[in-house]
Write a structure and sequence with these properties.
By secondary structure, the chain is an all-alpha fold. It is 81% helix and 0% strand.
Length: 102
């Protein structure tokens, strides 16, 4: 077996192990972004009271919360399904890598 053959068989498995970690990092980054947006919204709300700026209330606030919550739930479900497929479905690996019996 040559070095090139060994690399061709080993490298896809090494890179494939990184998918789960990358997906978790992306999830944490998304959660951090949501926290930053919430903090900015809170600071704006506090400053708006002081400066008497209009804030969304009633139906507008409910609409923003429902849309944001729906998007967050959809992203979470999509991320979880993607992670599960990547980590546990052998068809995912077979879509790129040819598996031969030993």
């Amino acid at each position: 077996m040559t070095v090139d053959e060994l690399r061709a068989k080993a490298l896809p498995r090494v890179e494939g192990k990184q998918w789960g970690r990358r997906l978790r990092v992306a999830g944490v980054a998304l959660a951090g972004l949501m926290v930053v947006v919430a903090a900015v919204w809170g600071v704006r709300a506090l400053r708006a009271r002081k400066l008497r700026l209009p804030l969304p209330r009633g139906r507008q606030l409910i609409l923003v919360a429902v849309i944001g919550g729906g998007l967050a739930i959809a992203a979470s479900i999509g991320g979880l399904r993607g992670y599960n497929d990547i980590e546990h479905d052998p068809r995912f690996c077979l879509s790129c890598h040819t598996m031969n019996s030993a």
